[in-house]
Amino acid sequence: QVQLVESGGGLVQPGGSLRLSCAASGRIFSINAMGWYRQAPGKQRELVAALNSGGSTNYATSVKGRFTISRDNAENTMYLQMNSLKPEDTAVYYCYADLAVAGPDKTRYDYDYWGQGTQVTVSS
Fold this sequence. Notes:
Blueprint: E1 3-7, E2 10-12, E3 18-25, E4 28-39, E5 46-52, E6 57-59, E7 67-72, E8 77-82, E9 91-102, E10 108-114, E11 118-122
Parallel strand pairs: 2-11
Antiparallel strand pairs: 1-3, 3-8, 4-5, 4-9, 5-6, 7-8, 9-10, 9-11
């Protein structure tokens, strides 16, 4: 079965850096799209960064120039490099992937997967 397992969160001072990782396991045929979302207390979940199969990226204006999304196809792992972190970046971060996987009849189909979330806290 396909799963997304993310890691790399923690406590960091303002101006510091963190790199989040999201590893996909299971029988995956291709990655259609992937991205990172975050949700702060009392706020809705928002898209932080996205990467489609063609290599194009999309960033929230609040993180543009500070965050970078990337992936390692050989390891089926995606990353979010976060630099110049601010207190307002504090949130639970979730990885997301639209994956082509195999069904019980071996037929390929697309399905959305989410990581379990990792806490990022930016505080002095």
